[in-house]
Amino acid sequence: MHRYLMFAILLPVSLAAAPRPFTISGELQGRYSGTITLRYTLNTQESMALTASVENKTFHFTGQVPHPVQAVLELEGLSTAVWLYLDSGNIHVKARTHTFVDGDGRLVNNLQAISITGSYSEKLQDDFFTFWRGVLETDQTDSAKAETLYRHMLALVDAQPDSNVGSELLRDADLLTYAQADTIFHHLSAGQRALAGSNGVAKLLQRLAHTERGSLFKFFMLADKDGKPMSGEELPHTYMLVDFWASWCGPCRREHPNLVALYDKYHPAGFEIVSISLDEERPKWLSAIANDGLTWPQLSDLKGMTGPVAQYYALSFIPFNVLLDARGRIIAKDVKGEKLQELLASLLSE
Fold first, then answer.
1. Which of 97, 213, 284, 291 has its CA 20 to 30 A from that of 157?
2. What gap in Å lies between CA 341 and CA 266, rounded to an integer?
3. Is the pTM above the cut of 0.70?
4. Contact predicate 212/330, CB 8 Å
5. How far is C-alpha 86 from the geometric centre of its chain's CA atoms?
6. How far is CA 90 from CA 48, 174, 311, in A?
7. Domain ranges of the chain
8. At 53, which helix (H) or strand (E)?
9. How does pLDDT run along the chain (350 residues), one tens digit per residue?
10. CA Rg, the chain, in Å?
11. Hey, CA dihedral for 143, 149, 154, 155, is it positive or negative?
12. β-strand partners of 284
């Protein structure tokens, strides 16, 4: 990791403004034949799309970008996507394909990356994510992990303040405190800061500001599954988990058995859960509640990601949760699975 940081520091920042011609040579495994499309959006918000034929399980693109930019490769029809960074040079993509029928009976062309080489920005991001995962797997406290990530991300941004890579890494850095993220943000170039509203960084900063540990959680008056007004703030509790989910969210549904078990175990000791759904269709919401055996309060405005709760907390992903103490202050967030089990066991020991 230190090697890539040194390389980043030595890379001339002026290169960020130079035209970047690229080629993409691709090899596909599987039986797919048809076309493949490369899509990306420039910092000017201009959307670009190039399409190539897959011949003998290979494809080829040539083009030019004014700056490194994230792009996706997609197959025909309904398709999963492979993300990559377009940058100057010869980029080689190896991927596997297969076709399956999803839960709604739709035919899906699945595209899954095996390797992507030749893009400096792609490697820069991959190396950072590899380092990031390593930090997350250590036994450090969350605050210590955040400090480590903060220092490394700040070094990367200081070396290349006008690179999209720094902004896009920051966009996903929910482990940071608001102060750490805001400092990194203000080390980005003016051009990158101007993109915050479109690249997700503004939402990250808002989410961190509104879910800072030690701050009071803001409740919203919603409707429960019977249509009665409720916020959850009125519920007595020693600790409360506010869980954001939706019926269409697979990871949310897979976490429900863990929540059911924890609720059964710790509710007598004062543990409460309030679930806030980002569903838009009431029948699907109610069906999921019944099928998953959720017996604690269920709230929703049925406005999905556009509702005031989702907007206030700038939710870009679910499942997401916050754990509150008896005063309604946030003491932890985005804790799931074994981590949540261990945390509740330490707080509510039998």
1. 213
2. 10
3. yes
4. yes
5. 20
6. 19, 33, 41
7. 20-117, 138-210, 222-347
8. strand 47-53
9. 333 333 333 343 433 457 889 999 999 999 999 999 999 998 888 899 999 999 999 999 999 998 889 999 999 999 999 999 998 889 999 999 999 998 888 999 999 999 999 998 999 989 999 999 999 899 899 899 999 999 999 999 999 898 899 999 999 999 999 999 999 999 999 999 999 998 899 999 999 999 999 999 999 999 999 999 999 999 999 999 999 999 999 999 999 999 999 999 999 999 999 999 999 999 999 999 999 999 999 999 999 999 999 999 999 899 999 999 999 999 999 999 999 999 999 999 75
10. 23
11. positive
12. none
For 85, the token pair is: 């960074």
Token look-up 């709604």 returns 104
| Pairing verdict, β 229-230 and 222-224 | antiparallel
Closest among 257, 235, 260, 255 to 335, alpha carbons compared: 255
Residue type, 202: A
Q: Hey, what CATH class is 20-117 in?
A: mainly beta
Cross-strand pairs, 51: 37
Return the CATH class of domain 222-347.
alpha beta
